[in-house]
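Hi R.,

As promised on Friday, here is the backbone we talked about, encoded as structure tokens. Could you run it through your design pipeline when you get a chance and send me back a sequence?
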């Protein structure tokens, strides 16, 4: 496989491991109209490869990026998934936030409720704090006023004219999942051994749909073992290098911590 591995190469690798042609039926999904469109094996491989790449980023291999959004006046919550990142990936966790070029303090909703009892009805102004809201939200306090009177800086420090006439520009530094691959020459922001982990993951998931081939059972175990060993090693390394960052990828401390 050439470096960097391209999407078409990854798909071919998975198909060759499964010894399946590209256009065989892989799964059926109800449409609610009595029809059950068939998903081809190649389409299923593409979906599983993208899902595996996203799973790797969310569980053990952080991909950092900066993303931006134009925020309208009185906006309280901005969806992370609506931000535009420099790499094209989808942000799933923010670590730092600026508004119109000013760094915001990180707080929590419970702290706002404790120290600012009227925070939900406080007048709009220049946001000074940000907090997480659910799985996909960044909250701003106070909500931005109709005109901030500040310069609006976008990605790369470029002036975004007109956006600050109401609301402003929010930048978030955080963690993203890779942009989904669609074209044959698309690539992943991973080293070749991590791409191979995604191939193992996609192959094992699709192999479980093929009950007719009994020889796949052993290979499924091998591929899943490779995935589990690889991701466990990546997470262990992350805990050694950056425990705070590792905590964002793992819901609880690993055994022995």
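Update: got your reply. Pasting your designed sequence below so it's all in one thread:
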């Amino acid at each position: 496989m050439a470096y960097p591995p391209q999407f078409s190469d990854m798909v071919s690798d998975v198909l060759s491991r499964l010894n399946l042609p590209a256009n065989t039926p892989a799964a059926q999904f109800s449409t609610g109209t009595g029809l059950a469109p068939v998903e081809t094996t190649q389409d299923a491989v593409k979906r599983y490869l993208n899902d595996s790449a996203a799973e790797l980023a969310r569980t053990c291999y952080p991909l950092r990026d900066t993303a931006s959004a134009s925020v309208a006046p009185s906006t309280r919550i901005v969806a992370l998934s609506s931000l535009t990142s420099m790499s094209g990936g989808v942000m799933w966790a923010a670590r730092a936030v600026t508004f119109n070029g000013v760094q915001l303090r990180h707080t929590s909703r419970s702290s706002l409720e404790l120290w600012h009892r009227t925070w939900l009805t406080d007048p709009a102004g220049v946001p000074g704090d940000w907090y997480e809201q659910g799985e996909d939200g960044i909250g701003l306090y106070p909500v931005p006023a109709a005109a901030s009177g500040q310069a609006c800086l976008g990605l790369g420090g470029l002036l975004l004219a007109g956006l600050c006439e109401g609301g402003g520009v929010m930048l978030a530094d955080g963690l993203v999942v890779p942009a989904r691959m669609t074209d044959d020459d698309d690539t992943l922001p991973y080293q070749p051994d991590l791409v191979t982990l995604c191939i193992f993951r996609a192959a094992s998931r699709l192999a479980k749909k093929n009950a007719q081939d009994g020889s796949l059972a052993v290979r499924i175990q091998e591929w899943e073992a490779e995935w589990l060993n690889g991701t466990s090693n990546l997470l262990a390394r992350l805990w050694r290098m950056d425990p705070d960052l590792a905590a964002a990828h793992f819901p609880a401390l690993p055994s022995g911590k």
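One thing I noticed while checking it: The chain has a mean pLDDT of 83.

Thanks again,
M.
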